[in-house]
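Box 3.1 A note on notation
Throughout this textbook, protein chains are presented in two layers. The first layer is the amino acid sequence; the second is a token string describing backbone geometry. Keep the layers aligned when reading.
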Amino acid sequence: MWSIWMSELSTPIGGYWLHTRGGRIVALTGAPPAERADAGLVALVREWLERYFSGGEPSLEALSLFPAGTGFQQRVWEALRGIPRGRVARYGDMARELGSAPRAVGRALGGNPLPILLPCHRVVAANGALCGYSGPGGVAAKRFLLELEGVSIRENARVNL
């Protein structure tokens, strides 16, 4: 089920590539990195993903996450860490907590370079609509991840709030 070639990680929702720089994890994307990723970090992320897709909620503490973004993006991405597995937050609620607008939060989430690790899939519209997802596979992947976490999704791709 799992394979690593350089920094490629195969998951149930498709292949991801780990991007590292200076011993830090900077991105997890659908595109290969320009240079080979740190093998130790690849192993750590692989183990994290295996635990996650096996139903666990692994800690991010052992991972040196260092996503590049604006100050506002960093605040939004940090807020994602507070959304537990199996729960969702709304764009509007996050915006109020951050003193911003829902669309600004959506744009920051769309730029999340570490999908799954920083769980932007756990953020939905006010009416429960899934909207977009920054990781490979788009909304279908978001739906899979939420269902894996036990979130109930209606046929019309809305979370039962």
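The chain has two domains: 4-53, 71-159. Residues 1-5 have pLDDT under 50 and may be disordered.
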